[in-house]
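Data availability (excerpt). The following record was deposited with the supplementary files.
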Amino acid sequence: MNAQFARALWQLKQQEKKMKKSEFVKLVQSKLNADASLKAADRAVDAVFSALKDVLLAGDRYSHPNFGTFYTTELEARNARNIRSGEQIEVPARIDCRGSDRLRLALPSKTKFGTARRKNNRCQ
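Predicted structure:
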């Protein structure tokens, strides 16, 4: 991932705008080459996220160089309390990811993966 791409994503977030899948597919299409169709880029995006989902469901961890590591964190079942209703709820397992050093250095420090923002630089 280059710094220009990371900054473009950060700027979208700063504008209080979430990138839609169609916009992301167009971005992927522009990165592939001029001959790639939107359908091919859409299939590529779906394939990547489907494969990542399969890896996480199998309980494995995936590390992509210069981007980050994705893994599930199994927490012992615990009960928490909903502050508004007082109802007891069970806290499920979660997916964690940790940004690589290159990604964190490419992003401004105010972002979630920024260098000094959070301990361990995890996203949730």
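Summary of structural features: Residues 28 and 34 are 11 Å apart (CA to CA).
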